[in-house]
Write a structure and sequence with these properties.
This protein is α/β, with parallel strands linked by helices and 609 residues long. It contains 14 helices and 26 strands.
Amino acid sequence: MAKMGQHVNEAIGGVGQMNIVVIGHVDHGKSTVIGRLLADTGSLPEGRLEAVKTNCAYNSRPFEYAFLLDALKDEQAQGITIDSARCFFRSSKREYIIIDAPGHIEFLKNMISGAARAEAGLLVIDAKEGVRENSRRHGYLLSMLGIKQVAVCVNKMDLVDYSQDIFESIRAEYAEFLGRVDIEPTEFIPVSAREGDNIITNSDRMAWFTGSSVLDVVDGFAKEPSRVDKPLRFAVQAIYKFTAQGDDRRIIAGRIDTGTVNVGDEVVFLPSQKRSRITTIEGFNLPTQTKAVAGQSTGFALDEQVYLTPGELMCRVDEPQAKVGTHLKVNIFWMGRQPMIKHKRYKLKLGSTRIPVWLREVVTVLDASDLTTDSNKQQIDRHDVAECVLETLKPVAFDLSQDIAQTGRFVIIDNYEIAAGGVVLDTVHSATNRTLEGVRQREKNWDRSGITPEMRSERYKQRSTLVLICGPVGAGKQRLAKALEENLFKSGRSVYYLGLANSLLGADMNVDQGGERDEYLRRLGEVSHLFTDAGLILITTISDLDEYELDMVKTLNRPNDCRVINVGASRFTEAKIDLQVGDLSNQAAAIQKIKDMLVQEKYLIEYYL
């Protein structure tokens, strides 16, 4: 139970607290804007301002308000923000979390990570340098992430003699661009963060400006509707089982992204579609709870112990549920050093889901700096924004980002690094998938011998099939499989037991040692096809196989047959299993049941007991 405490009792944000992201091109002064806000609202820890000034004097450096944000040594040395730093301040209206997102193009992934947690944004533009390519790119990314409350600070007005003409020129240029990405700025504010002009109060140096100060604009941002009022979305992160002192609970742990859930609510887990009812809400060293809400990390016990895996999304049955699919139309911003290409395996991280994903189709590629589009590109290059279709290995649960942002945003991993961030636009229905297309291509190019399956069956006195023995780890599957092989071999059958490790040795190997499970299963399916095509009865075992993986192995073994035998607790629907073996205490009896089934199904011809 102590381990689960890591996931429990966490909450995000205070009541009325608001997240604001501040972004802008490198050296346009966003950190100075933030530092000035902190200092002028009295939000700095006592003595912090004086300590920074003293340190600057000691090192013979001119004091900058940006130094108040420089928490990382690398930032101090390079003079740029390289990570999304958070700080806090309070106005007379409410509390704020300010996210200082990096502006340098090399750290766009950090900027996206920071902006994804924001409810509103401040875009900072240097009055002397004007609108830069990154300024436009940042505006587009805010739009893509669904952040519509945006104010623009035209900073360093002191460097252009507080010129109204320069300010108006920048406002006209950038407002036109933001309008094209569906952002209507709340305000354009001419500021000098270094001098404090128009940060907290309006400045006499720019009497021509009649709008609001930065603080007044920030206080005017509307708080997002409470996540509590949205449908329930609870991403399963872990399952804990307790056995000590007669405690047989199985606790589903994770965090509630949106909505509420009560003891007694009927829930459904997606994509598995398994249903149960909440019996208790679990916490670490907490009193009994009957309700949990968005923002809580918690755990649940269910009245029916359905088999679940991390990555499932829990919804309430009486509310709109998440979508499920394998083909997702998305907008992504690619940050990987190598372009995103078709037929390469990536990893999708959506909520608590981690799943293989491929680029299925490039619909259009957008240059975010000038909004020109290219409908002919077949890859996505670094810093491209693209509308595309992704295909996942298995069905995944998600929402459209416009409906529930928390479960409609994702990142893509390439070589253990975040290579892209994106949002889900829609589902795409497809009658095919990568596995099925691969099998069709294989069959199209397969050079069949003149020896037919019927001829092999007549020679071997059997019909070939893949005997797939499934079940949990430790159920005794391998002992059963090897004993079955020996029994059939002694009776004159052409049979072979294939351990999963053996299947990795003979296939074309392009995955490093310790590779992914889906690639192992792909190779197992391909090797199984060879054995069964040769007329053998092939026996193999796989632990913790789910229905989607089973379908993949069966598809890869086509057009040959597959018979599924489950040992112990089953995670399959009844239609997926050909034979259930619940008890291996009498192995000989279990083998006899399997042989009887093979006789009945006419896989063993001229069989004699």
